[in-house]
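Re: that backbone. Tokens:
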């Protein structure tokens, strides 16, 4: 990656863009009057899948360049996770405060498992200033990047740790009152789910709450997360692999692979509440209980998180169905799993 010092003519010095050049294309970083930066991706190959081509960020150019070292195509998506209030921040705030009073987080410890570059951790650290928030991830490069963003955000209640291996937590990490898996569970391989979830459950204090969000529902008709294909969730693994490799137009790094494990790591199979509970019960540390939001049931909570201006009557009808499935089978089969599970005495 290199920086192009040639400035476009006709621009004021305080609004001239910096160009970050890579083998995949160029990134334009334009200073804005509000102290933020507009980031625009210009790929060399226009057929390359780019989930988000432009965004605004409060992070400085040197940190933007560090994100770029990880991925060109996913740069703006990664930055948006840290800065767009309608992305990670909105989901986490809605979920956490729907189930737990803000005062109940004070003086407690919260684990953000699989924190990646720290967007969810830092959002929660800002939202809950009197809570100790610990982000943990297996990838040391992710944690190094998270710590760079933390240095910019300057949150004294947040720290980041590297997990020693896929089947354990960081040594001496202690116990927690709350654990969050935000867009994480789907990326765990089946054998990791069997081992890691009981381990996380054992690290939680009795009465604590585990939150799982933004994980695709395993049997939703449209597989939106990894392939963008319909009905693939109902097909055998080999046929799903064939269709993902030949029909999917997104995530080519994953979907062109002939290794099914790569697709599982990419999150193709999602999860259900039943599966999550089953894995937690492998630990004898406490009884997992799905809880309802404080002021409404899970179906009404789902409805409140949808766009109120689109298909409202249809969504209300779906919420009635979800209320029934939740009572009968303990599941709200929406596009994503969104569940809070309390650790009760065994």
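Recovered sequence:
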């Amino acid at each position: 990656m290199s920086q192009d010092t040639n400035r476009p003519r006709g621009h004021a010095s305080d609004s001239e863009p910096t160009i970050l050049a890579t083998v995949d294309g160029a990134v334009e970083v334009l200073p804005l009057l509000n102290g933020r930066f507009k980031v625009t991706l210009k790929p060399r190959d226009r057929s390359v899948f780019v989930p988000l081509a432009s965004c605004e960020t409060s992070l400085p150019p040197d940190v933007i360049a560090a994100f770029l070292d990880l991925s060109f195509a996913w740069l703006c998506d990664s930055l948006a996770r840290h800065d767009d209030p309608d992305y990670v921040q909105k989901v986490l705030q809605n979920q956490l405060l729907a189930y737990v009073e803000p005062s109940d987080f004070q003086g407690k410890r919260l684990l953000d498992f699989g924190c990646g570059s720290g967007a969810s951790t830092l959002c929660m650290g800002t939202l809950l200033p009197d809570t100790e928030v610990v982000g943990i991830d297996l990838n040391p490069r992710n944690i190094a990047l998270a710590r760079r963003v933390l240095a910019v955000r300057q949150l004294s209640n947040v720290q980041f740790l590297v997990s020693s291996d896929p089947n354990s937590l960081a040594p001496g990490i202690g116990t927690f009152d709350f654990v969050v898996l935000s867009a994480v569970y789907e990326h765990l391989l089946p054998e990791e789910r069997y081992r890691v979830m009981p381990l996380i459950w054992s690290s939680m204090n009795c009465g604590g709450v585990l939150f799982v969000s933004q994980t695709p529902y395993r049997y939703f008709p449209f597989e939106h997360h990894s392939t963008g294909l319909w009905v693939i969730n109902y097909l055998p693994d080999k046929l799903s692999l064939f269709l993902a490799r030949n029909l999917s137009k997104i995530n080519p790094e994953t979907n062109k692979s002939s290794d099914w494990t790569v697709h599982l790591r990419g999150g193709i199979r999602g999860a259900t509440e039943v599966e999550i509970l089953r894995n937690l019960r492998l630990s004898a540390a406490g009884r997992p209980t799905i809880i309802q939001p404080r002021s409404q049931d899970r179906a009404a909570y789902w409805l409140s998180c949808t766009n109120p201006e689109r298909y409202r009557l249809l969504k209300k009808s779906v919420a009635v169905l979800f209320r029934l499935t939740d009572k009968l089978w303990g599941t709200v089969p929406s596009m994503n799993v969104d569940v809070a599970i309390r650790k009760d005495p065994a």
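The chain has three domains: 2-83, 85-218+270-297+334-344, 228-265. Residues 5-13 have pLDDT under 50 and may be disordered.
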